[in-house]
C-alpha cells in the first residue's frame, strides 16, 4: 500500500517523455512559420526585382543596337 504512493510520482504528466519533448522547443513552430513567410516574401521581392532589371537591360540593349536615324542624313 505504501509502495504505491511512493511510486506515483513516476506517472506524473510533467515527467512524461511526451511532455518533455513538447516543451523542449518552445516557440520553434512559431519561429519556423515566421521564417518561412520572411523567406517567401524575400524570394518574391528579389525575383521580381531581378526580372525588372533584366527587362530594363534588354530594352536598353535593344535601343542601343537599333539604327539611329539622324535628322541631317534624311533627304529633304
From TrEMBL:
<keyword id="KW-0812">Transmembrane</keyword>
<dbReference type="InterPro" id="IPR012576">
    <property type="entry name" value="NDUFB3"/>
</dbReference>
<dbReference type="Pfam" id="PF08122">
    <property type="entry name" value="NDUF_B12"/>
</dbReference>
<dbReference type="GO" id="GO:0022900">
    <property type="term" value="P:electron transport chain"/>
</dbReference>
<protein>
    <submittedName>
        <fullName>Uncharacterized protein</fullName>
    </submittedName>
</protein>
<keyword id="KW-0496">Mitochondrion</keyword>
<keyword id="KW-1133">Transmembrane helix</keyword>
<comment type="function">
    <text>Accessory subunit of the mitochondrial membrane respiratory chain NADH dehydrogenase (Complex I), that is believed not to be involved in catalysis. Complex I functions in the transfer of electrons from NADH to the respiratory chain. The immediate electron acceptor for the enzyme is believed to be ubiquinone.</text>
</comment>
<dbReference type="GO" id="GO:0005743">
    <property type="term" value="C:mitochondrial inner membrane"/>
</dbReference>
<comment type="similarity">
    <text>Belongs to the complex I NDUFB3 subunit family.</text>
</comment>
<keyword id="KW-0813">Transport</keyword>
<keyword id="KW-0472">Membrane</keyword>
<keyword id="KW-0999">Mitochondrion inner membrane</keyword>
<keyword id="KW-0249">Electron transport</keyword>
<keyword id="KW-0679">Respiratory chain</keyword>
<feature type="transmembrane region" description="Helical">
    <location>
        <begin position="21"/>
        <end position="41"/>
    </location>
</feature>
